[in-house]
Amino acid sequence: MRIIIDSGHGGKDPGASGFGMKEKDLNLIFANLLATELEKLNIDVDRSLINDNYYSAKELTDLIKSSGSSICISCHNNAFDGTARGFEVIHSIHTNGTLAKLIIEEVKKTSFKVRRAFSRESTLPSNAGEDYYYIIRLTYPDVETIIVEFGFMDNAADFKLLTDPAWQKKLTTAVATGISNYITSNSIGKTSILGDPVLTPDQLKSGLRAVNKSFDTGIVDLYYNISKIYGVKADLAFIQAIHETNWLRFTGVVKPEQNNFSGLGATGPNNPGLSFPTPEAGVEAHIQHLYAYATTTPLPKGRILYDTRFSLVRRGSAPNWEDLNGKWAVPGIGYGEKIIEMHKNINEKYPNETPSQPVTPENPVENQPTHWAKICHDELTAAGLLYSDHTSTLDEPASKGIVFCLVNRIRKELMKDE
């Protein structure tokens, strides 16, 4: 996961000020230190926006969205009237604020005064239902952007700590730890797009036949054959296709002749999305789009790029199905979870009926041919000429003593007959 850090303000925009210091200069210090602390945690950091340059709102947010980052941390420092103080984090109204809250928890451990984690909705009618702060509003849902206000630089108590190198390190270390905790927690319990399928093709074919008998179930085999090339989970990819097309009945704006099984590019009645020459091409385009979200690895060698929207995806920005929320579908709340739930339902309703393999003994006994001397051994034993079982040593050489004893027993038996 890549994180881009914005140093906040710059160039002709100095930001706030306090005790003769410009906010943009203090922001640069915190942004650079935060980048260093994140890199110590082996997190991929984009430093391109840590500078003293001025960007318009569109320029800045376009750079953030095109960076390939999943998270943006915009570093700032507050000012009010000299009386307010404390650390704040602002998150999008469209998120539950988990990232902001985890950062707040870590900063509290430093004993620095903490105010709150909050979100704010725009007060403009034209932006109703959207975020107040443009850097958050214009990057959602492509990038999860938060604004970190390290403190109030016009407050004497805060300013003293904000300009102290030891406290600067404490605060940036705390923020980095909170971000790291978020990345870790955000991956737990999620379902990866890449990997091996759980359901068999027959299970999915049974499900498809039960709902839509008219569609060729060979489409399932296409998904399994093509998904394997890319390492994408074929069962979930196919389930996404039946979710997008209403079990391949194409009751929405996308039509069957388009061979577009995942709604690529479809935005409404006037834009039904992409079309592909064959079902194979349509399936591969779908898999390629998932691949774009799941990894930054190049396409498998020799494959034709059918997905013309491939380059529009921030590579690796959604490695899990749940991460597609707000990306594949907007606002897309619960989108990935719906696909996982469909997977669970199909598995329960159409269990794998593949016959179990016969149980093989852990140490199978092979039928070995009878040793050529076994009959002689048994007859001599029955005649009383051998006093113990030598079956396991028939191929071993006999000592002179054993031979002498055996010959002597035979001599005695012959003498009895006389």
Automatic annotation (TrEMBL):
<dbReference type="InterPro" id="IPR050695">
    <property type="entry name" value="N-acetylmuramoyl_amidase_3"/>
</dbReference>
<dbReference type="GO" id="GO:0030288">
    <property type="term" value="C:outer membrane-bounded periplasmic space"/>
</dbReference>
<protein>
    <submittedName>
        <fullName>Mannosyl-glycoprotein endo-beta-N-acetylglucosaminidase</fullName>
    </submittedName>
</protein>
<dbReference type="Pfam" id="PF01520">
    <property type="entry name" value="Amidase_3"/>
</dbReference>
<dbReference type="InterPro" id="IPR002508">
    <property type="entry name" value="MurNAc-LAA_cat"/>
</dbReference>
<dbReference type="Pfam" id="PF01832">
    <property type="entry name" value="Glucosaminidase"/>
</dbReference>
<dbReference type="GO" id="GO:0004040">
    <property type="term" value="F:amidase activity"/>
</dbReference>
<keyword id="KW-0378">Hydrolase</keyword>
<dbReference type="GO" id="GO:0009253">
    <property type="term" value="P:peptidoglycan catabolic process"/>
</dbReference>
<dbReference type="GO" id="GO:0008745">
    <property type="term" value="F:N-acetylmuramoyl-L-alanine amidase activity"/>
</dbReference>
<feature type="domain" description="MurNAc-LAA">
    <location>
        <begin position="61"/>
        <end position="180"/>
    </location>
</feature>
<dbReference type="InterPro" id="IPR002901">
    <property type="entry name" value="MGlyc_endo_b_GlcNAc-like_dom"/>
</dbReference>
